[in-house]
Amino acid sequence: MSICNKFIFFCFCAMLVGSVLIGDTNANKVIGKGAMAANRELPCKGGNCLPQPSNPENRGCETIERCRHS
């Protein structure tokens, strides 16, 4: 076998092993709607809770800022 054929064979084997390893991951789990709910209080476990954020979440442009599309 020439060097080029050996390199192609090596790349093919590497892709085959990689596809087998990637296929065994848990990447197909779905995030439920409960995890994505807004303004939901998380339960405190063991007394190691963080305080609530001081500023509410802001996802847009305020009217006073005179941004486009508002």
Give a verbal description of the structure.
The protein is mainly alpha-helical and 70 residues long. Helices cover 30% and strands 0% of the residues. The protein has 1 helix and no strands. The longest helix has 21 residues. The radius of gyration is 25 Å and the shape is elongated. The N and C termini lie far apart (66 Å). The relative contact order is 0.06. The model has no long low-confidence stretch (mean pLDDT 75).
The total count of helices amounts to: 1
Main β sheet profile: none
> What gap, in angstroms, lies between the N and C termini?
66 Å
What's the order of the H and E elements?
H
Average predicted confidence as pLDDT: 75
- Helix share of residues? 25-40%
Number of strands: 0
Weakly predicted, low-confidence segments: none
Shape: elongated
Question: What's the arrangement of secondary structure elements?
Answer:
Elements: H1 3-23
Primary descriptors:
single chain; 70 residues; mainly alpha; 0% strand; elongated
Give a brief outline of the structure.
The chain is an all-alpha fold and 70 residues long. It has one helix at residues 3-23.
